[in-house]
Amino acid sequence: MFSSLAVYTLLALQVYTATAFPAYESLAGLPRDQLDAVVANTKYMRPPPPPGPLADDSSKLVHDAAHPYQDLKPGDQRGPCPALNTLASHGYLPRNGVATPVQIVTAVQEGFNLENSFARFLTYSTFLVNGNPLTNLMSIGDATPLTGQNPPKPATVAGLDTHNNCEGDTSMTRNDAFFGDNHSFQEDRFQNFVKYSKKYGAGKYNYTAAAQLRKFLIQDSTQRNPQFSLVSPRLFTAFAESVFPINFFVDGRDKSGQLDLDTARSFFQNMTFPPNFHRRAGAVSNVGQDVVTDLLPNFKPGSNTKGVNTYKADPTSANLDQPCVRYTNFVNKNIKSLYPNPTGNLKDALKTNLQYLYEATVAAGDGCTQVFPYGH
């Protein structure tokens, strides 16, 4: 996994030498002929297809001798996702926190036993808005020159810290972006996690505690954050993250469905597997999410429109029970807004990754009609 990162770093340096444009700057503002020339001269390789399911999805030790925890080094990226942070800290992902989609799909399966279509959908939907299609690299934290020369704006290539996609308001352990740092562990927010686990789970975090905590977090952001927003695609990751710790942070030998608070802190704050941690047995997606959504049956995506406590539903956003609206809007709105008129290798990279995303929706059984924003 490290060799591909070295190759792409060298390619970024080669582009810098050949074009005299800094490797980390966007190409926005260049005339079309110069822009096409720079993109064309980037040594491009079409993104390879994602890996399939694990051949062996049984429970096994994942905090093993081959994957020891290591402290971060200067420049290493970590972000709002405790699962990816942990995988990088143990070497399932490159330890600097910059990875390819194939590496991410492989890592979340190996480390946590995510079901393959679920892993692919999360990875490619995240990569398409936060990663660099030209170099096939994404930061799991903030923007970094290690992802190579950026495509032209309005593309951002800003990593998982980008607000309102994977990261967003109502996080269990990270601040809403309005309050500043949206990616670092916050003890006060974790204490809400503790409080609801004690009240509804006898000191353990379970589906009941998850539902009640999600309800509180939405109310809290509505009342405190004048810019609070919970619309697609963040809407779906917000509800998914409520049950993710129960499904994947409980040791695979423990069948109780109850996450103890020390283990939760190990992942959320310390970014490490607990000692002797085993992944769960059998690949799984985000089971239990219906427990959370059932507690909020009338919830609609929306935002505060005129300050705190002015929440208004957004009829243009997909609801939680509209996966195909989510997919269509994501492609036609989110991706097209970042890449309105791609050409050459950039266009090919986007079309390829969008194909991988659609195949993940099909594998998940959503039955959506494929959309082609850049042609067949």
From TrEMBL:
Residues 65-293 form the Heme haloperoxidase family profile domain. Residues 1-20 form the signal peptide. Its cofactor is heme b. The keyword Oxidoreductase applies. The keyword Metal-binding applies. Gene3D superfamilies: Chloroperoxidase-like (1.10.489.10). GO terms for molecular function: metal ion binding; peroxidase activity. Keywords: Heme, Iron, Metal-binding, Oxidoreductase, Peroxidase, Signal. Belongs to the chloroperoxidase family. PANTHER family: HEME HALOPEROXIDASE FAMILY PROFILE DOMAIN-CONTAINING PROTEIN, STERIGMATOCYSTIN BIOSYNTHESIS PEROXIDASE STCC-RELATED. This is Heme haloperoxidase family profile domain-containing protein. It comes from Gymnopilus dilepis.
